[in-house]
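Section: Multi-chain targets

For targets with more than one molecule, the full set of components is provided together so that the structure can be written out for the assembly as a whole rather than chain by chain. Components appear in the order listed by the source. The example entry contains two components.
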Amino acid sequence: MVHQVLFIVFGLICVAGAINLLVQRHPISSALSLVVVMASLALIYLLLGAEFVAAIQVIVYAGAIMVLFVFVIMLLNAGAEERTRGSRIALFVGVPGVIILAGTVGWMLVSGSGRLGTVSISSSNFGETHNIAHLLFRDFLLPFEITSVLILIAIMGAVVLGKREN
Amino acid sequence: MVPLSWYLILSGILFSLGVLGFLLKRNIITIFMSIELMLNAVNLSFVAFANYWNTHPVADKSIVPLSGQVFVFFVMVVAAAEAAVGLAIIISVYRTRETLNVDRVNLLKL
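Its structure, encoded as tokens over all components, is:
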């Protein structure tokens, strides 16, 4: 019962933040509502017993990535967005498309929910950092090393792109 | 006890809102934030299925329940790398065009 109430509360905060991201015209308001979405998703991860994922969600996503976004918004002094002809076409084509997408996914999930079963707060130390580290450094060692190369390439790309040409 | 489908429906709602933002927003930074929203929606279903397979053990040993959470880790790494490169591209586009509106950025050539 407590699990359901907490899920509904944080899920509603999440959806409200996502809708606010779309409604706001100013990018800094959108960025701050995305932080709300990410923070409530971290709490939902805690309900699912994923402590490590909840921690890195707050530290990496809500912390590092969103701070990068806010830095860029302030660096470029981004103002409120303007409506143009192109956005009206996107409105008339995009909204029905998204409604069809959401309707199809929702219908499939609702009709198949009987077979899916339930999720409970796990009593075991399931999402502990210890267990994830075991899996990450044993079974997923090669992908882990490849991501470090990916980050190195991303750093070099960001430096090259951000360098001022003279 | 919460049905797994609730988590998946929340994930679907967030993903759809991300797609809608990607299509409707004209500011390139907000479009980028919509992509982050879609990545977060996918992460939610990864974590929900990780918990599901932990509480519903199967005979098939190839399904490791925790690998869902490890995949979330990889998605976050890729999202961080993407944010760094993408924001660098946004800065260099702004330097040459003095605008963030995607309708005014219609040439690949700088």
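The beta strands of chain A are 118-119.
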